[in-house]
Amino acid sequence: MAKRSRKTKIVATLGPASSTPEMVKALYETGVDVFRLNFSHGNHEDHQKRISIIRDLEKECGCPIGVFADLQGPKLRLGTFENSFVDVTKGMRIRLDSDPAPGNINRVCLPHAEVMEVLVEGADILLDDGKVHLHVVKKGPDWVETEVIAGKRLSDRKGVNLPNVILKSNVITDKDRRDLEAACTMGADWIALSFVQRPEDVAEARKLVAGRAKIISKLEKPSAITHLHAIIELSDAVMVARGDLGVEIPSEKVPAVQKHIILAARKAGKPVIVATQMLESMISSPRPTRAEASDVATAIYDGTDAVMLSAETASGEYPLEAVSIMDRIATDVERDDLYRRIMDAEHPDPDKTSPDAITAAASTVAATISAAAIVNYTTSGTTALRTARERPEVPVLCLTSDLVVARRLQLSYGVYPVHTEDVDNFGDMVKKAAVLALEHKIAEKGQRLVITAGVPFGTPGSTNALRIAWVE
């Protein structure tokens, strides 16, 4: 595979519209770097088939491909109504209770004891992606009486959001546990944890994963933003999941929250994905709206590692067109002088360690001598992550003998991972770096490479050497 002309990565969701070997290959060739499997839909057999298709493609193209399994998390929903729906008006009262009988204009079942336990007078409840807003005015042992603040209609099994309410129950459901185990067995590189509320949720997921995959924490609850830095510290990557986040916090606050999350993740050296409704209209249209194109561009100007497509590629009518336009937007933004100034203006301070000093220096040296690329030799991927944190102008050619590490690095900004055999000494590594840079079209003859590695080899976190080499 020829290297991408952009450094921002593209994540695409596989689904009914995109699960044949031909379509997966076409999506990859159009620009997808990492594939997402949404465990809210489909069964384990479906997901296993998709991973098998991806791994076959990986062998065919000779390039590692990342896969992440997105867990459903706790889905809160209303019960049903006698006539499938009721019309509501501002000021009317409706009781939410535990009675499973179909509801009416006066009451409806909220079949979640854990929700009833934490709701208090004054709490807000948002239904149907925020279209209906209820306010709790009275609480009983297994019911709450609410007043309609806004909205027109409630129908069967609509979703429930609870802004500023922290559930005492675990965010990892029984279904999630089964899905997590299946995804790890299938060889998913990342597990995405939905509705993270607090650092303890990530810690529990890490115990269940037991080192078999890396963890992406999806930030879609106000409480997660409150604990942002602690959650980032415990996670391997984070996702700005703007769907539920945009329901639970005021819409006008989402852009600023997005910028803060991206900056915090970058400072920590953790990959960050911006997701949800990026090119939503392309589910049924061959072209995005100007607002959507601007939204994708904004995430890239913010410095995100990756942007994600959901229904656009999983069930939309124009999956290839959605990937293509996202690729073109990213490429154009990264060529803008303003983008480069923004990236350079927000360089995080390196940690006071030898590896960070070397990786920060590598980015500066590469810019000074107009090198074709920065080359990392890494066993754990840490060096590549610290290099990506610098948002260098040139690609990061990451050489690793661990295929799993190579797959995971596909999510990181500007990193071009190559799975290659181990080397015994620095001299051999320099020769191999030059050969592979030429082979993968990262560099041309006569160009220079800035190479970092740890000596002795095979010791994670030991980056202590920097060298400039010519491609011959």
Keyword list:
38% helix, 472 residues, M1 Pyruvate Kinase, Domain 3, single chain, Pyruvate Kinase, Chain: A, domain 1, 3 domains, TIM Barrel, 8-stranded parallel barrel, 17 helices, 21 strands
Quick synopsis:
The protein is of the alpha/beta class and 472 residues long. The protein has helices spanning 21-30, 44-61, 113-118, 174-186, 199-209, 222-226, 228-234, 242-248, 254-268, 290-301, 311-314, 319-334, 337-345, 354-369, 382-389, 403-408, 426-439; strands spanning 9-14, 34-38, 66-70, 85-87, 93-97, 107-109, 124-127, 132-139, 143-150, 153-155, 160-161, 190-193, 214-219, 237-241, 272-275, 306-309, 373-377, 396-400, 415-419, 448-454, 463-470.
Written description of the protein model:
The chain is an alpha/beta fold and 472 residues long. It folds into 3 domains: 229 residues, Alpha-Beta Barrel (TIM Barrel); 77 residues, PK beta-barrel domain-like (M1 Pyruvate Kinase, Domain 3, Beta Barrel); 117 residues, Pyruvate Kinase, Chain: A, domain 1 (3-Layer(aba) Sandwich). 38% of the residues lie in helices and 22% in strands. The strands form 4 sheets. An 8-stranded parallel β-barrel has the order 1-2-3-12-13-14-15-16, surrounded by 9 helices. A 6-stranded mixed sheet has the order 6-5-9-8-7-11. A 5-stranded mixed sheet has the order 19-18-17-20-21, with helices on both faces. A hairpin with an 8-residue loop joins strand 20 and strand 21. The longest helix is centred in the first third of the chain and has 18 residues. The protein is elongated and about 80 Å long.
